[in-house]
Each structure stands twice: as structure tokens, then as C-alpha cells.
Amino acid sequence: MVELADGRLVRGRGLRGARPDGPDPELGVYLIGRRPQGLAWEVHWVRCRDFSVPSSTSDAMAGLRDAHRRAGDERVEVGCGGGVGRTGMALCVLAVLSGVPSAEAVAWVRDRYHPRAVETPWQRRWVARLDAVLTSD
């Protein structure tokens, strides 16, 4: 569980791993190549291939803004296949929405979630551009 700068809690996870202990989420935002199947909770799917960035930044931002809003009083998780690179990008967006400067988001997520979160240079560039994305909305 990651506590965001504004106190909201979000679980990051890898969908290929074992299901985490604890209650199911009420909302999951998943950055994966194919629509997730067999989940009993509300899902926002963001098309994103392994080691890549979302095919639609606006779709990713819509799902993650909703996740941030709902994490105030609902169980929310974000995930990808392995739970590191793309999940790290999602957590960076949530960190920025909660008040972390985008220039510090990758280090913030690596410190609080996983030391290798946001694995590739293009994923780090995508996170670095969050300020421009947020101000254009």
C-alpha cells in the first residue's frame, strides 16, 4: 500500500503475481496490453504494452484522475503485468495529483513503492511531461 502525499492510499500490484492479501479493490486501473478478464470489481483499462507508455495519455489520465478522486474513500489499486514499470508510472501520476512535483515523482515512487519503478527511459520521459499534460487539461 502506498500512502500518497495527500494521505490517500493506493495499492500497486503485478497482475501476473499472486493476488494480494486483504479485501478486493473497488476500482482497479490496469496499464496492460489486453483488457483484463475475470475481475469482480470496476476496472479502468489503459492500453499499454510491457515496458512502454500508455497508447493514449488522455485515457490514462482520465482513469488515474478517477482513481485519485476515489482513493479518498474507496479501495483503489493500480497495476500492470509485473507491477513495476507501468504500475510505477501510474503511481507517479497519482503522486503528482496528490502534490508531489513531477520532477520528483519517480524518486518519490521508487522510495515508497519499488526501487525500480518506472523502468525505461521513455517511461521516465512520459512522467517528466506530466506538468504539461496537467496544465493542458
Plain-language structure description:
This protein has 137 residues and is an alpha/beta fold. It has one domain (2-136): Protein-Tyrosine Phosphatase, Chain A (Alpha-Beta Complex), CATH 3.90.190.10. It contains five helices and five strands, in the order ββββαβαααα. A five-stranded mixed sheet has the order 1-2-5-3-4, with helices on one face. α2 (85-97) crosses α3 (102-112). The protein is globular and about 35 Å long.
In short:
The protein is an alpha/beta fold. It contains 5 helices and 5 strands; from the N terminus they run E-E-E-E-H-E-H-H-H-H.
Strand and helix map with partners:
Layout: E1 2-3, E2 9-14, E3 27-32, E4 42-47, H1 57-70, E5 76-80, H2 85-97, H3 102-112, H4 121-128, H5 130-136
Parallel strand pairs: 2-5, 3-4, 3-5
Antiparallel strand pairs: 1-2
Main pleated-sheet profile: 5 strands, mixed
Tally of strands: 5
Distance between the terminal alpha carbons, to the nearest Å?
28 Å
In order across it, which strands form the biggest sheet?
A: 1-2-5-3-4
Q: Note the total helix count.
A: 5
How would you describe this structure in keywords?
137 residues, alpha/beta, five-stranded mixed sheet, 39% helix, globular
